[in-house]
Amino acid sequence: MKKLRFKFLRYLGLAKLFKLLFQRDKVTIILFHDIDVDTAEQSFAYLSKHYNIIDLDTYIEAHYRKDSSKIPKNAMIITFDDGHIGNYEILPVIKKYNIPVTIFLTAGIINTNKHFWFSTKVTDISELELKAKSNKERLEFLKDKDFWQEKIFETPEALSKKQIEEMSQYVNMQSHTLYHPILPKCSDSDAKKEIVESKKILEEEFNLNINTLAYPNGDYSDRDIKIAKDAGYRCAITVDYGFNTLDSDIFKLKRVSVNDTKDINELIVKASGLWAFIKSRNGTKQAYGYAKSIKEYT
User: Fold this and answer.
1) pLDDT tens figures, 159-209
2) Positive or negative CA dihedral for 85, 90, 94, 96?
């Protein structure tokens, strides 16, 4: 049924109309995580044909200079979160289409055999409920399931240093904290460590120029924004619904998730922003985003 919905929205022309009316003069930031080669081929072929793909740094410079000449119509920034090892497999596709891509690296997990906490399979609690716990409670719960942040597994889940070095010639590598916590659920000291040290590690150990933070799970607060600014970041990205302009809050940039879909109709509808627009108006509040008060999350 879901596939039929996306097909209906596409062939009825609603995605195309929405793109023309609301997206044409904006900057769309699109979110992937861990797509395979075939999905990357299909996705990049469509996106590069129907959008003007620009680098994240181009937008950042245009924002600070207020230089709209650098931003074309139907501008799009392609991003990937986490730094999954599978991202390396799509490098030939990135090179083939010669498009700028940004990958947000989880600095404490890359180049190790540590695993992402959200890949741990638990049956007695939902991922949403787990994310609702304080950072300390979440880690304690997972420890009872034989997972802890420093645990070393037999195989890696994230990119190696060698892969990052090869990819960084074609890909803009940026920061996604150390271990991907829900930042507003963290204590002040933990939040600062996650945001500050990830930048330091990526710059000093991987020789990367880090200027942007992607908030894990799209959750952030004023405290986290201040930490990022004080640490020297120039930009930060959310998963809030919507598009961006040169006047957007550079530490609250909006992003559209396409859920790593293999369905071309879903990609087209979601990339246009139509699906997120519908979701944001159906009465369902998104389970992530801006936290007005840290007290709500501890």
Assistant:
1) 999 999 999 999 999 999 999 999 999 999 999 999 999 999 999 999 999
2) positive
CB neighbourhood size of 17 (10 A): 12
Q: 293: which residues sit within 8 A by CB, 6+ positions away?
A: 221
| 2-282 has CATH 3.20.20.370 classification | yes
CA dihedral (135, 260, 162, 171) in degrees, to 10, reads -100
> Tokens at residue 220, please?
């952030």
pTM of the model: 0.96
Q: Tokens 């970041």: give the residue.
A: 233
Say if residues 62 and 71 touch (Cβ distance below 8 Å).
yes
**pLDDT, tens digit (0-9, with 9 covering 90-100), for 33-47:** 999 999 999 999 999
Q: What residues have CB less than 8 Å from 82, skipping those under 6 apart? A: 33, 34, 104, 105, 106, 116, 158, 176, 180
Q: Other C-beta atoms within 10 Å of 207: how many? A: 12
For the ranges 45-54, 238-247, 251-260, 275-284, which has the lowest average pLDDT?
275-284
Instruction: For residue 54, give the nearest of 30, 36, 37 by alpha carbon.
Output: 30
Percentage with pLDDT > 90 across the chain: 88
Structure tokens at 62: 């245009």
Residue with tokens 């990049």: 44
**Cβ-contact 165, 159 below 8 angstroms:** no
Residue 212 neighbours by CB distance under 10 Å: 27
Please state, in angstroms and rounded to a whole number, the distance separating the CA atoms of residues 213 and 235.
7
Domain definitions of the chain by residue range: 2-282
